[in-house]
Automatic annotation (TrEMBL):
Pfam families: Inositol_P (PF00459). Keywords: Magnesium, Metal-binding. Mg(2+) binds at residues 60, 78, 80-81, 189. InterPro entries: CysQ/Inositol_MonoPase, Inositol_monophosphatase-like. This is 3'(2'),5'-bisphosphate nucleotidase CysQ. GO terms for molecular function: 3'(2'),5'-bisphosphate nucleotidase activity; metal ion binding. One of its GO terms (biological process) is sulfate assimilation. It comes from the Bacteria. Its cofactor is Mg(2+). The keyword Cell membrane does not apply.
Length: 242
């Protein structure tokens, strides 16, 4: 099984486990979110140990191991991205499974279990045409000020959505055109989405235009821009004027 096949398979099975928990009726709200985080993480960690025992792992739900800094291959996972949305039984939550090689998001799979979808870096789909007017994704609970300002300058519609993975995949799927985030994230929030978006031919960078770099000592990665390449220059130029 290739790395990409493994990432997609693990993300899919983790998503099925999360759906089973959600449907069980045994947990509600925040308790459901906690149970989902723990269950999905336990499965993903065991699956990676069994199938890629020599690789390092960075997971939101695991204590960080500094030994990963010396590894060329590091799996970066978010077992449940959008815990609040999952606990509310919405569909805008995700499972992220990525492999960073020498700091680059080389392989990724993002499962959207509520939509019965797994988007993967080894099976990029043709990008749909841009929306008119442009649609910009923002957090449904705390929209980033920069994103709101850029949307106003570009005449773009705001599209509130939950998890980072769901928002990034909305651009890949053509539901939206721009995902601009400046409110703080960590490597596990965007590594898998970045890998899938790059494979699809989208522009992916920090909001200053620099590339996203992974497996850093400080895993805080506060901002990113995912959009169609034809919009990247305008968005980055607009950001510089704010």
């Amino acid at each position: 099984m290739t790395d990409a096949e493994l990432a997609a398979h693990i993300a899919h099975v983790a998503g099925d486990l999360l759906l089973s928990l959600q449907r069980s009726g045994l947990f509600q709200g925040k308790a459901l979110g906690r149970a989902g985080d723990r269950t999905a993480n336990a499965f993903i960690m065991e699956a990676l140990r069994a199938n890629r025992p020599d690789d390092a792992v960075l997971s939101e739900e695991e204590k960080d191991n500094a030994a990963r800094l010396d590894a060329e291959r590091v799996w970066i996972v978010d077992p449940l991205d959008g815990t609040r949305e999952y606990g509310e039984a919405r569909t805008d939550w995700a499972v992220h499974v990525a492999l960073a090689i020498n700091g680059k998001p080389a392989v990724g799979a993002v499962a959207l279990p509520g939509l019965d979808l797994v988007l993967r870096s080894d099976r990029p789909q043709p990008l749909p045409a841009a929306n008119s007017p442009l649609r910009m994704l923002v957090s449904r609970t705390r929209p980033a000020a920069e994103a709101v300002a850029v949307a106003e300058r570009l005449g773009a519609e705001l599209l509130p959505m939950g998890s980072a993975g769901a928002k990034a995949m909305a651009v890949v799927r053509g539901e939206a055109d721009i995902y601009l985030h400046s409110g703080g994230q960590y490597e596990w929030d965007n590594c898998a989405p970045a890998a899938v978006a790059l494979a699809a031919g989208l522009h992916v960078s920090r909001i200053n235009g620099e590339p996203l770099v992974y497996n850093q000592q400080d895993v805080y990665l506060p901002d990113l821009l995912i959009c169609k390449t034809e919009h990247a220059g305008l968005v980055l130029e607009t950001l510089q004027t704010l």
